[in-house]
TrEMBL record:
Keywords: RNA-binding. This is RNA-binding S4 domain-containing protein. It comes from the Bacteria. Residues 8-67 form the RNA-binding S4 domain. Residues 100-109 have a biased composition (Polar residues). InterPro entries: RsuA_PseudoU_synthase, S4_RNA-bd, S4_RNA-bd_sf, TruA/RsuA/RluB/E/F_N. Gene3D superfamilies: Pseudouridine synthase I, catalytic domain, N-terminal subdomain, RNA-binding S4 domain. It comes from Sorlinia euscelidii. The lineage of its organism: Bacteria, Pseudomonadati, Pseudomonadota, Alphaproteobacteria, Acetobacterales.
Amino acid sequence: MTDDVKGERIAKFLARAGVGSRRDVERMVAEGRIIVNNEVIQQPATFVTAQDMIRVDGAVIGPQERTRVWRYHKPTGLVTTHHDPQNRKTVFESLPSAYRASSASDDWT
């Protein structure tokens, strides 16, 4: 774990690695399921770098994929969320399975 503010927060790092959403990772931290450099982390505000050894439930987390951005023209009737409480069809359900761990942004500025 880095003591300075270099790197990125553990939740963002693990979300980009496909472990879960940032909120999921914050819950995992609270449950003591994340180990960084052989130390169970207690705070979701922990900053990490690619040089840190990170384990989730005992499994080593490998290097992150680089960020990829693509434009998707959302068909009418789909909602932009991963989980819809009203069970409407989501954008992510219409994507190929390789892209379903993606996150959405409508900020194209």
